[in-house]
Amino acid sequence: MGNFLIFEKNQHLEEPQINDEMLTINNDFVDNKNSQHFIINIFKVIFILLLFIIIFIKANEIIIVEEWEKYSNNPVLGNKVTGTLFDPYIIIGKDGSYKMYVSWRKYGAIALTSSINGINWSDLKIVLNKGKDWENIVNRACVIFKDGIYHMWSTGQYKDQSKIGYAKSDDGINFVKLGNTVLIPEYKYEQNSVMNPHVIYDEQENLYKMWYAGGETYEPDVIGYATSKDGIKWDKYKDNPILERRKKKFI
Hints:
Oligomer: single chain
Radius of gyration: 34 Å
Shape: globular
CATH superfamily of the largest domain: Glycosyl hydrolase domain, family 43
CATH architecture of the largest domain: 5 Propeller
CATH class of the largest domain: Mainly Beta
């Protein structure tokens, strides 16, 4: 016959004894384990945040400028004779020189000046004159050089309205206007004015992209976005404005 365990009626197994020292050791082990998990999770969160920051900076090619140092002999352009000059827009021309397109309040026109070092500038020359009706004054222009052509978008103002026009030039001096506006205020958030165009050409998407100000004529308070295949016919972004001065629901 095999072996059997035989218990007497009143016989019972003794319960294991746990003393305070054993409890202390176990509690210390649990606490250490939890602390390790907590520290590991903290490092994971920090790593993920740093990864997102790096990806964001790379994607947007952000350049962080800590501090600007103003030139000691400022101003480099403008005096009592020229009067007010404002909203300069600078590009590098096909000859390699800096070309500054600036609004000249005295004449209500866009003027050009050139420089090889960004400090010493040539005499101002008007390259875009004011016209009639919607462009009784022209100012706040931007220019890009593409495919051997200088393309200019400028602000035309008349009374309390501002609109955006287009002109082009072979030499960056003699500009020919399209004649009509290429962007006008249409929506409530734009009020009576669209102005201050800033245009780039996206080589990858083969698309012109414009950021413009809208709202009150002298103090616009929103930024809109639009795209174009030819720089003349523009499609405004459906979720404009992309930036606004204060929280406010626009229709």
